[in-house]
Amino acid sequence: MQKQSDNGTSPVRVALDAMGGDHGPVETVKGAVLAAKSANVEMILVGDQGPVEAELAKYDTNGLAIRLVPSVDKIRDDEHPLQAMRSKPNASVVVATRLVKSGDADVIVSMGSTGGSMASAVLTLGLMQGLERPCLGGPFLGLAPNTVLVDIGSNLDSRPGLLLNFASLGVTWARTYMGIDNPRVALLSVGAESTKGNRQVQESHRVFEGSHLNFVGNVEGMDFFTEKAEVIICDGFVGNILIKFTEGLGAAFAAFAKKRLATSLDDTTIDEFAAELVQLTNRTRTNGGPLFGVNGPVILGHGSSGADEILAAVNTSIRYVHLGMVDIMRQDLARMNQTPNETSGTGAGR
Amino acid sequence: MQKQSDNGTSPVRVALDAMGGDHGPVETVKGAVLAAKSANVEMILVGDQGPVEAELAKYDTNGLAIRLVPSVDKIRDDEHPLQAMRSKPNASVVVATRLVKSGDADVIVSMGSTGGSMASAVLTLGLMQGLERPCLGGPFLGLAPNTVLVDIGSNLDSRPGLLLNFASLGVTWARTYMGIDNPRVALLSVGAESTKGNRQVQESHRVFEGSHLNFVGNVEGMDFFTEKAEVIICDGFVGNILIKFTEGLGAAFAAFAKKRLATSLDDTTIDEFAAELVQLTNRTRTNGGPLFGVNGPVILGHGSSGADEILAAVNTSIRYVHLGMVDIMRQDLARMNQTPNETSGTGAGR
Asked: What's residue A285's pLDDT?
């Protein structure tokens, strides 16, 4: 299903959820046009026919590899994902995911409801063996570009065995996508000692120690900046709070800097600096982040994305496909869970 | 035990753990001298006699209300607090806490081991009725000066009933110390809906709803900056990760700003700006933060504090004593737990 050997020679077919996000289809179509112009890609816009065609008409798409696959309606942030999938079986994200399943697209990119995209991915593409949930992760901080955080939002009260599987996915990503040799894995906690942490972390510590991951123990909140580990694992509850907090803090910093430096710097310099501060706190969302653990490439982006961020997410998706990330993750996961000495497979933990 | 009526007329007697922190007794003594010069205070330096006297000799303390109470050794960060209290019964923080217990001091201020200070406070002063643990809290972000976060580090896997009691303490602080009328209380979670959150938050949501607090539901990570609630409650695991993360992020931001603006601003302006960025992420630690729930005023500060931060913590302690915070907190807590309609006292929760 995945392209792996044709490194960049044939175009990657990207199914873009054209209705997704706060600004679809206006910004999604614009982003698709940018992508079609700049990358070796075939953009498949999945969305309500009328609105998408109206947006497309704004551009000269002559010679560009862009086509439309019609869908009906979209899954909204405030909808229950599974109910929405049932009541809107041809919503944009569902149709786009089906294109990956049927082999008519290589990857899906969506800025829409995270819950909707995840539900669609799990039900349409299925989970990798040994997983009961997918997870989200990636280098979420521009200020810590080599530090991957998993899980950032989908799974609450995760068992240690599930966290271990998430760690495997994060390690594969760090090694293959980011080029980090033998990435160090750590659990996010309140102290470095193995006895420090809540029950979940203490139990996970034992499970991780028994695994073949390059586990270096616990790290603390400041250790995103101390390069003690490349893959930091936490429960989705903590991860979700952290990314949203960071995003809020970045915006607050930017606002402070703008006000504070108003008399010292010219407007352009201030605006650029403030924009950088925001970007530095928000990397996964800026570049799109993969949904780990499903049997197909899925890249999710921030709902507020504009055309530039959509282009960045498409570029992430192209690289993800070229590297054959899904197959490698599946192999690494199976290997970890099949190792005879493994004390802590999927079934382990509390 | 607490001064309440003599608002500022007689000096507050502050027992300062002179050996505490990374820079005791050098910075603690310096801070005590600053405090004695600037505030209506009697500084009681508790520490190893020789080293403290040597530091004191560096200053002209003529006419200043500073005296020394000798102690032996200190509790270090890497020691187990309870074991250290047993093996060092006259460690500085223990002797200083005893001065509060015996009525010879009005408040203790320590920059030493948080665990050591807490153990000493709990065992020497005792816990308020209904509590099984103390907690830490305060406005931890300079960028969100009216938002109090409780608990920031002492209690992991807290029961909902304990979190409710912590919320009561935080509310009293926000109302009395910060002057916020009827503070709004929220639970930190991954979504605003009552169904969003891990098990602990979902159970706590029901307990908080049944209380007489001004409970406004769940808030998310970005809501430290959106003014939806003045008192945000989380498990100490999350709170500890958040404050350490924030501190690391503030330092990283400052380093980035210094580098990024090196050619646009003069050195002084950059340095001031960078220092402000650090301060904005670190308010409780800069000004000292109260230990809530013990039967006496205890103000803790950051281990890295210099004389200025120690002075700020002393000033916090003076105000804490003048307001009679401990008595008010005790009364509010008792009232909440004795209300007949209360569905969720200390014994409640999982």
From this structure: 60
Q: Is the pLDDT of residue B344 over 60?
A: no
CA B339 vs. chain centroid, Å, equals 28
Which of A223, A225, A234 minimises the CB distance to B251? A225
Same domain, residue pair B187 and B274:
yes
pLDDT at position B257 is 87
Regions of chain A where pLDDT drops below 50: 1-6, 8, 340-350
- A150 lies in the same domain as A109: no
Q: Which amino acid is at B296?
A: G
Any domain includes B338:
no
Same-domain pairing of B239 and B194: yes
Mean pLDDT of the residues in chain B: 90
Mutate: best of B114, B140, B156, partner A, most A CBs <10 A = B156
Query: Which residues of A are less than 8 Å from B237 in CB distance?
Result: 189-190, 197-198, 201, 238
Do both A107 and A17 map to the same domain?
Answer: yes
Q: What is the length of chain A?
A: 350
Least confident range of A314-328, B168-182, B327-341: B327-341
* pLDDT, tens digit (0-9, with 9 covering 90-100), for B277-292: 887 877 656 678 899 9
Give the pair of three-digit tokens for residue B170. 């935080």
DSSP string over B218-276: EE-GGGGTTTS-SEEE--HHHHHHHHHHHHHHHHHHHHHHHHHTTTTS-HHHHHHHHHH
Q: Are B331 and B2 in contact (CB under 8 A)?
A: no
Count Cβ atoms within 10 A of the Cβ of residue B6 and give its class: 0-12 exposed, 13-18 middle, 19 or more buried.
exposed
Query: Rounded CA gap, A59 and B29, in Å?
Result: 71
Detail the DSSP E strand segments found in chain A.
12-17, 41-47, 66-70, 107-110, 135-138, 148-150, 185-188, 215-219, 231-233, 289-292, 298-300
Closest CA in chain B for residue A158: B198
Q: Is A157 on the interface with B (CB under 8 A)?
A: yes
Look at residue A191 and tell me if it is in a domain.
yes
Chain B residues closer than 8 Å to A225 by CB = 248-249, 251-252
Instruction: Give the domain CATH number at B268.
Output: 3.40.718.10
Q: Do B224 and A248 touch (CB under 8 A)?
A: yes
DSSP secondary structure of B294-346: BSS-EEE--TT--HHHHHHHHHHHHHHHHTTHHHHHHHHHHHHHH-TT-S--T
| Same domain membership, residue A142 and residue A79 | no
Q: How far apart are CA A212 and CA A232, in angstroms?
A: 16
- Claim to verify: residue B38 and residue B112 sit in the same structural domain: yes
Task: State whether B113 and B147 are in the same domain.
Answer: no
Of the candidates A224, A248, A277, the beta carbon closest to that of B245 is on A224
Q: Are residues B127 and B154 in the same domain?
A: no
In a domain, A260, yes or no: yes
Count up the domains in chain B and report the number. Answer: 2
Domain, as residue range, for A181: 135-278
Q: In what order do the strands lie in the sheet with A66-70?
A: A66-70, A41-47, A12-17, A107-110, A298-300, A289-292, A135-138, A148-150, A231-233, A185-188, A215-219
Cis peptide before B151 (omega within 30 of 0): yes
What is the pTM for the complete model shown?
0.89
Question: Helix count (H) and strand count (E) of chain A?
Answer: 12, 11
Mean pLDDT over residues B78-90, rounded? 92
Cβ distance of B241 and A243 shorter than 8 Å: no
Alpha carbons within 13 A on the beta-carbon side of A72: 7
